[in-house]
Amino acid sequence: MKSKKAFRVIASAIIVFVCLFLLQRLLVPKYVSEIVEGAMIAEYYKEKMDHDVVFIGDCEVYENFSPKVLWEEFGINSYIRGSAQQLIWQSYYLLEDTLRYEKPQVVIFNVLSMQYNEPQREAYNRMTLEGMKWSGAKVKSILASMTEEENFLDYVFPILRYHSRWSELKPEDAEYMFKPHQVSHNGYYMRVDVKPAENVPEGKLLADYSFGENAYDYLGRFTKLCKEDDIQLILIKAPSLYPYWYDEWEAQMEEFAAENDLLYINFLELVEETGLDFSTDTYDAGLHLNLSGAEKVSRYLGRVLREEGVPDRRGEEELQEIWQEKIRLYEQDKEEQLHEITDCAAR
Amino acid sequence: MLFTSYEFLAFILILFILYYLIPAKAQWKLLLLASYLFYFLASPIYVVYIFTTTVTIYFASCRIGKIGEEQSAYLKAHKSDLSKDERKEYKAGMKKRQWHLLLAGLLFNLGILAVVKYTNFAISNINGILRLFGNPGQLDFWDIALPMGISFYTFQSLGYLIDVYRGVVPVEKNPFKLALFISFFPQLVQGPISRFGDLSQSLFAEHRFQAETVARGLQRILWGFFKKLVIADRILVGVNTIIRGSDQYTGAYVFLGMMFYALELYADFTGGIDITIGVAETMGITIKENFQRPYFSKSIKEYWRRWHITMGTWFTDYIFYPISVCKPMLKFSRFSRSKFGEVVGKRLPVYLSSFAVWFATGIWHGASWNFIVWGLGNWVVIMVSQEMEPLYERFHARWNVRDRFFYRLFQVIRTILLMSCLRMFDCYRDVPLTFKMFGTMFTHWNWNIFWNGALLKLGLSALDYGILAAGLLLLIVVSLIQRSGSVRGRIAAKPYPVRFIIWFGLFLVVLLMGAYGIGYDESQFIYNQF
Predict the structure, then answer these.
(1) Low-confidence ranges of chain B (pLDDT < 70)
(2) For residue B496, what is the nearest residue in chain A, using CA coordinates?
(3) Looking at residue B2, what is its pLDDT?
(4) Structural domains in chain A?
(5) Could you give the residue ranges of the DSSP H alpha helices within B43-83?
(6) Strands across the sheet with A263-266, in order?
(7) Structural domain of B336
(8) If you average pLDDT over residues A207-221, what whole number do you get?
(9) In Å, how far is B229's CA from the nearest CA of chain A?
(10) Could you check whether the bond before residue A67 is cis, i.e. omega within 30 degrees of 0?
(11) Mutate to test the interface with A, among B467, B500, B512, B520 (most CBs of A within 10 A)
(12) Contact: B6, A163; criterion CB under 8 Å
């Protein structure tokens, strides 16, 4: 009698657990179509963790730099850990997370997120945080990022957050329940279409141009962590025309870089050197670069990294093989997108 | 801490584990600690109020009890040397002392309730009067916190004090036990208003872990969550759209909002009580039922016997009966019978007592004229239907339909509609607006909203309506089954796989269809505000 009861309890618990697990897998967004940025953070963990350069930041890194160019033309093995509106503390904890797996020679951080001093939007938090593997860094990142409406438990059990998504499920939710869909090329989100930058608006007047205390605190921690691990930190401002980058912000960044003996590159001031042409090198009127623009900027950055002593590893057979496959997928993606554009134009 | 919040679930989970781990004799002490912690987490200042009430009730009840003991001892000691009149006189003197203590306890605690709950209402009325007489001076409103559940725990405490005075329950000499009775956290925020005699036994008893009892409690909690999260919080969006947009949503929308609110209030309040009773049940504590399928009532009078039962009986026992039999009322009864004859004269005191009860019921629900008019509206309907009783009898003598299904259905629908109309006072900003909106149901003829797609513009999608319809159907079916006994009992008699499918299925329904989390407004239980 007792064993029958025990069997019932165990069997019921297994059924409950399996059902909830499957439901959760089904209901969480897969970021396969439309908004794909939420899938990018998780892709890193499938990598061979042996990168010389790791980019960390928001859309201004994952849309403006091409690791493929860095490899092909400079032999630099790099990866971008970026997601949409990635806040500075999220970047910091992503750095902590990255250091659990590897120790790159250079970390490049895009400073646009200095403008945010407190949590912003839940949807963006989700895209950054959900892809992270569970660790102390993830827990801290969640706690630092949650808006008032959010709850930590919803991150632990995403089914609580996405419980009502059953009404908007698509076939892809079942298809990618267990196997993720690759959306980036070493963290780079490729777009080949063109939308010229015209009439880029001037920045609105702000009441206060000072970066917040919290943002500075995390930038300080970022710098300290890199120094402790003997990693060269390079600060960059990617060449996006919008959101507007104010002179006052620039001055603060220059000052911080000088104080901490860091290399700071503002690509907005290097349009000529990089050869960027905002009538052909952006797909959304100056917010982000397209493939052409990203490759131009990457070539410039490759030269800088070479000067900073990042080695050429094209002679390593294993890496060559890995990159060969990556380049094939890169070219395939490019061809498909170009084909789609041609098709659209023909229609 | 909302009953539907993760914090509350974590709170009861930790409490539950500790409750069955510690020695059984310390269980009630743990509950007291937990209850005060629960209240403290809502706001530390609230603890001062409930503590004050507990202390005053404790001392008043102990003193009343002591006087009773003194009286017994005195009478026993002087059994032979006191005449009947002397005994009577002595008893009357002692009763008077007890009465003074009772009165002090009542006035002090009702005074606290009046100050925190009704001061600003009084000020707004005074300001209104000042304006009426052209006086530009206005009194400032008080910035005063309304402690959570103060109406519930004050009434529960006063009920206990009156019962001690009446000798219905023994004095609780342990102040901590009395503190637990007053502050027991599951019922603190929205009742039920328990009686000491009903609750104390299981509240202070030692409970061993019993899987069946715990399972039943969890099932009850789950059912409460279903009502609150799947039905009440989903339909809330529609209710708010209609009520807040009173300029736009007139006529048939008002009718729809009224019916939506009837469903929301039922699911919200009974769901909350299910959670309350379920939480207590998991710890072996029995709380009295507060509802008995009220929407199956065939009259308003019956409805009030089945809706918020503990409040209704409280008002009956502690207000209606005492007023009915108090000396001035008996005097008035004699006067009215001599002036207006037996038939009318006998009824006037009843009307007056009922009036007092419904006025108190109204103002207990909230410090606004809306609630007072709502309470008096109930009184009017009940009195009118009582007066029309002979007419009904004649009708039934002529048409033998009393036991016909369709007539009973008509009565049920009539009661629901009447109650829903009265509840409109809960919804709209003020009394004139409520009357105005009620009037539009007959003047703005826009009933085509039910088929022209307008219903999908109230913040509810077709899917929401589908879920609500299915939820409502389930509520009706469960209520129908309940008439012939406990639904949980019936399910418990089924084979294990069936039970598992039912309860796990319900859990999944709540999990997947509950209106909680981001994208849904976290809503308070409606009765928390009382």
Answers:
(1) 521-530
(2) A8
(3) 84
(4) 48-152+184-346 (3.40.50.1110)
(5) 44-77
(6) A78-82, A53-57, A106-110, A232-237, A263-266
(7) 298-428
(8) 93
(9) 12
(10) no
(11) B512
(12) no
